[in-house]
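>> received
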Amino acid sequence: ELGSGTQDAGKIEFEDMFDLEEIQRLQDQFSDATGVASIITRTDGKPITRPSNFCRLCNDIIRQTEQGQRNCYASDACIGQHHPEGPIVQVCLSGGLWDAGASITVGGRHIANWLIGQVRNEAQSEEDMRAYARKIGVDEQTFIAAFHEVPTMSQEQFHRVSRALFTLANQISRIAYQNVQQFRSIVELKRIQEALRREKDFSSTMLQSFPVFFVALDRDGTTKMMNNYMLRTLGYTLQEVIGK
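>> returned
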């Protein structure tokens, strides 16, 4: 539930807009089709969805250390900055693998990031990876063994996948905006209906309270409604006069 109708995009979260399990399936299928790891996070880098195709190096080693996880979140937030011109593609600030991100917005407000990556190419050196293992306090041999398991992908191919991600994230942003507009229309309709109901109740109460005769007839002169004062004065019940 998004609120009372005065809610604006500044209070809406990603989870308010989508079925997370449906989004999870979309994310999983994108990762399987493209061969990249994938996750959707908040703007500060904290995960919204479960990781898809995360490599052992990132999921089981780097992110299991306090400093490594902190670095990953910081890198995810950086890569996922709002950038409407296209995806942000750069080396991960934590493990040094290639990552990319596309922002998801609603009504111009940045609400989430779709991140992909965890691929390697000639840009990473084993010496740098060993140095990072020491920095975050993990066993070098274990770290390097997991590094060699990371899938390789040319920069050209990774950029193509990143552009496809950007297109998909933009489509999700449009759907989110449409969902907000639809929700607001429903809220406004309910507000109008409630106002009409209160007005009708007030009018009905006033008509029943006044010591005057009041009767509502249709075009043929058939009784549709009669107030209590008139019924009591004439000695009828409402059931006896309706339709007469």
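>> The beta strands are 37-41, 88-91, 98-106, 109-119, 215-217, 223-226.
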